[in-house]
Amino acid sequence: MIERDAPPARPARRLSFSWAGLVPFFLFSALFLGLPLAFLALGSIADNKTGAPTLANYGALTTPTVATAFRNSIEVSLVTAIVGGIFGFLLAVAVILGRLPRILRSALMTFSGVASNFAGIPLALAFTYALSAQGIVTLLIKGIGINIYAGGFTIFSKLGIEIVYLYFQFPLMVLIIAPAIDGLKPEWREAAENMGATGFQYWRRIALPILTPTLLGSMILLFGNSFGAQATAYQLTAGQVALVPLAIGNQISGDVLHNVGLGYAMAMGMVAVMGISIVGYTLLQRRSERWLR
Amino acid sequence: MSGGGPAIGSRAPGALESVATSSVAEDRPRRNWGSPWAWIIFLIGVLYFTVPLIATFIISMRAKPLFAGYTNSFADSRFLSSLTYSFVIGLITVVLSIALVVPTAYWVRLRAPRLRPFVEFVTLLPFVIPPVVLVFGLIRAYSRPPLPFTNTDIGSSALLVFAYIVLSLPYMYRSVDSGLRAIDIRTLTEAAQSMGAGWFTILVRIILPNLRVALLSGAFLSLAIVIGEFTMAVYLARPAFGPYLALLGANRTYEPAAVSLISFGVTWLAMIAIALIGRGSRTRIQVGGAH
Q: Of A249, A267, B178, B243, which shows the fewest CB atoms inside 10 Å?
């Protein structure tokens, strides 16, 4: 980002104090971001008994229960990022370019703001009321002869978590992707049509290639959003599905792994996955700015 | 284009209309109705969005007598006390967050632009550190001397506020920073200084009023997030609204449905407030959330 701010007015004398105004901010960050993170990081490379440096805690991440939690978390996040990303994109295209009444667009944007923040306990409860074995929707479609629970489905499962997570995933996608779709210039389409391109060819050869970095970047953000989510799954499954945030939560409540260091290593593993996804998002975002904006 | 007229070079992006069909002639009769596939996708979205809410509403109305789910909730003293607790915590969070972020963003723009990448990096860290990891670290760091926050009620609540400030940092900072971009802080500062104003006066009487929109939208978003927040509150054992709702959901039938809808309504109000505040403002408002 290029900033146009002029250099400080009186650089010669003020320079040494230019950081002084940021002391409260750095103090706060150090105390409530840096210190907790340092505790986890140091704990993750320390032996539980002796405190000596070790990598054994990270090695323990491969124990079956922990590995399963990571696999489940990554799977749920991947599925909801891809499905939520695609459907959110289609939804945004529908209201922005689909010639729907204008009011639907602003309604969807406001609602997306609400829904992307409507997570946690109330969301899990809402889906329980709709899709549990005695849920309204389950009974309703049972009435017309479809018993979704006969096939072994339950809302308190991995698939159930995915269905519920989508409720905040694709509104978030709508919010992130809408500016990019707005950025598609009408001239591009007109130029393509003038050269005889069909609507499909325009999307295949022009619009989608331009949007691809933004689409991928947004999906990565969705991945991180789902990976860090804890409250919704906590309420929904009561711990029946092993996810990393739930495992860390259990570790806070009591040393359920009987290995404090492993808890720290799990937390650091989570930070690593999130960090990689944010870096990926930033890189793709930078690339997408070549055409959009 | 759909109108069949000549292509016009500089149209506003929002005026873009035709994409679904390529035939100009077929376009005309349907143009006011939108393309069918757009409607189908939109309706699927509406269905998915509304069905869980409708189900929640139906359950909440099954209580006998009617509205008992709602009246029982309001009569429950823990409902009001937990909601009040979360609201107060939310307000304190917003005030402290503004007090922390505004001077920082102002100072970065005015005096320390070279530190900008570093400050931005720090404000984005909460995206990388999930709430459950942050609260884990906070508890381990502050449950022992020299700073045994978690040993007392007030200490735990203070820790919760600090955690929420961290949580709201990305939204607040970006909101305030884009607000500052829209005003000429250098000229305002120099004008105020030439009339003898000190830093505190400049911040409180010049910068803050000019950031109204950015601050209010950041404040409402933070409030909406904090009031329903569960993870941090439950592990710090605070009597907040999120943990109360979780407990209710495990023990009662109709009341949690009613309370869920109320909580949805609170989020809805916050977002409408943000939309109203942002109307006609050049400040870009962020409404993505954290879970």
A: B178
The pTM of the full predicted model, rounded to 2 decimals, is 0.84
CATH 1.10.760.10 fits A31-43+54-288, yes or no: no
- In this prediction, residue A292 carries a pLDDT of 65
Which residue of A39, A98, A113 is in closest CB contact with B20? A98
What residue of B is the nearest CA neighbor of A177?
Answer: B288
Mean predicted lDDT score pLDDT of chain B = 82
d(CA B173, CA B117) in angstroms, rounded, equals 13
Domain B68-278 has CATH 3.30.70.120: no
DSSP state of B114: G
Q: How far from B169 is each of A47, A164, A192, B135, B165, CA to CA, in Å? A: 34, 27, 44, 15, 6
Give B274's Cβ-side CA count (13 Å radius). Answer: 29
Helical H runs in A98-157?
102-117, 121-131, 136-143
Spatial distance between the Cα atoms of B108 and A106, rounded to a whole number of angstroms: 34
Identify all chain A residues contacting B272, using CB atoms and an 8 Å cutoff: 110
Q: What is the pLDDT at residue B288?
A: 53
Q: Does B9 touch chain A (CB under 8 A)?
A: yes
Per-residue pLDDT tens for B127-148?
Answer: 889 999 999 999 989 988 777 8
What is each CA distance from A280 to A74, A222, B173, B251, in whole angstroms?
16, 12, 22, 43
Domains of chain B by residue range: 68-278
Of A100, A135, A172, the CB nearest to B34: A100
Q: Where are the domains of chain A?
A: 31-43+54-288
Q: Which residue reads 């990303």 in tokens?
A: A85
